[in-house]
Amino acid sequence: MSTRTLAVVSAGLSVPSSTRLLADRLAQAGVEALAALDLAAAVEVVELRGHARDLADNLVTGFPNTALRTAVDTVTGADGLIAVTPIFSASYSGLFKTFFDVLDKEALTGKPVLMGATAGTARHSLALEHGMRPLFAYLRAVVTPTAVFAASEDWAGGDRTGAALSDRVRRAAGELAALVAQRPRAAVADPFDDPPPFGTLLAGL
């Protein structure tokens, strides 16, 4: 069975976090949807909360430290991305935006992305469409038609509300799995495949 990698970016600030809870549900659903297509999945989670200072340093220096570089490589090297943020003041969090600000502008080109968001009230649900979708369109990612928003009542609103969230999660995960399955896997470049001639190296000394 061929394996695909799903990177999960969670921008939750608290521990535990409803943002991480939604991210985990989307990741599990993504694994199950890929399995239905005879594809195994490896999930790698990036918790932005632990990189808040790293991101600030990157903004002012222009360079990521080792920990942030690992997180960036996890996201850029994955076959698919699940990105989940809390909504503050009707838009994604600053921490979430900062992470995508430090990525190379070509890093997500063509990458399948499933968007998710959480907030205290459903009034914020349109932030997925007026905030997050334009962000990933600018980065030229391929975003699933279904985005998943979870308000407080989705976690504690009874069977009907919980079932509605589960349906959205499954539908979005199925769309992500289909996009991941269709996308050719990127070849990993070997820096030693095409070494410069020895004479060229000597000429540079």
UniProtKB/TrEMBL annotation:
Domain NADPH-dependent FMN reductase-like: 6-155
Enzyme class: oxidoreductase
Domain of life: Bacteria
Pfam annotation, one family: FMN_red
Keyword Oxidoreductase: yes
InterPro entries, sorted: CE1759_FMN_reduct, Flavoprotein-like_sf, FMN_Rdtase-like_dom, NAD(P)H-dep_FMN_reductase
EC number per UniProt: 1.5.1.38
One GO molecular-function entry: FMN reductase (NADPH) activity
Keywords: Flavoprotein, FMN, Oxidoreductase
PANTHER family in the record: FMN REDUCTASE (NADPH)
Protein name in UniProt: FMN reductase
Organism, as annotated: Planomonospora venezuelensis
